[in-house]
Design a protein that fits this description.
By secondary structure, this protein is an alpha/beta fold. The chain has two domains: about 1-160, Alpha/beta knot (3-Layer(aba) Sandwich), CATH 3.40.1280; about 170-240, tRNA(m1g37)methyltransferase, domain 2 (Trp Operon Repressor, Chain A), CATH 1.10.1270.20. Helices cover about 35% and strands about 15% of the residues.
Length: about 240
């Protein structure tokens, strides 16, 4: 996979690719990336990229020319049509399913806006996808793009070192993930559940499934509406509901 990020503030994003699991995945050549300052493509004096909105109103609007030209420049060096993503609070809510879809792409281009917003022609003629990471407003699209990029890269083959980790993540199965414990078995009077120390893998698996169902029902019950639970899961869920 190759990732291009169009931004006025590349320094905001560079740290993402130089830290932790993302850095290791890049070193293992699981993906490549470029940070593109679309101000460099402005044909205006002082490389201006924004202007007042027609019809009046507060704030400034990103002009289309620098963004269109930056995308055109990227496409000159690629054979396959890239997936272009516009980060915007007006976009579709981001979730794990979308992350899994994007992880199948070969080339992603993220456009990060600033100021009051984009000229609508950017939205209508460039973006294949519009993504929002939540119902709130940020100063720009960079933080949202980093969230999406992180969630996608960790799904690439061998990016985590253990493929099972991504498969068991919260939302990957449709449920929230079960609790985790590690050494010591007892800490300040707080003990690890006995079943996890039993060595009985069947019981451990059932406990994890029950805890995952319980956590989902207590914290995000709406997620259960979209799942087809098997008979064992339905029975476990009924038991959970009786005890709460």
């Amino acid at each position: 996979m190759h990732i291009d990020v169009l931004t006025l503030f590349p320094e905001m994003i560079s740290g993402l690719f130089q830290s932790s699991i993302i850095k290791k995945a890049h070193e293992k050549e699981k993906f490549s990336y470029s940070l593109v300052n679309f101000r460099d493509y402005s044909n205006q004096k002082h490389q201006k990229v924004d202007d007042y909105p027609y019809g009046g109103g507060a704030g400034m609007v990103l002009t289309p020319q620098p963004v269109f030209d930056a995308v055109a420049s990227i496409k000159e060096n690629t054979e396959k049509e890239p997936k272009i993503i516009l980060m915007t609070p007006q976009g579709f809510p981001y979730n794990q399913k979308k992350a899994e879809e994007l992880a199948e792409e070969e080339h992603l281009i993220f456009i990060c806006g600033h100021y009051e917003g984009y000229d609508e022609r950017i939205r209508e003629n460039l973006a294949a996808d519009e993504i929002s990471i939540g119902d709130y407003i940020l100063t720009g699209g960079e933080l949202g793009a980093m969230v999406v990029i992180d969630s996608v890269i960790r799904l690439l083959p061998d990016a985590l070192g253990n493929e099972q980790s991504a498969k068991e993540d919260s939302f990957s199965t449709g449920l929230l993930e079960h609790p985790h414990y590690t050494r010591p078995a007892e800490f300040r009077g707080m003990k690890v559940p006995d079943v996890l120390l039993s060595g009985n893998h069947a019981k451990i698996e059932k406990w994890r499934k029950r805890e995952s169902l319980k956590r989902t029902w207590l914290r995000r019950p709406e997620l259960l509406n979209n799942l087809d639970l098997d008979k064992e899961e339905e029975k476990l869920l009924e038991e959970i509901k009786k005890n709460y």
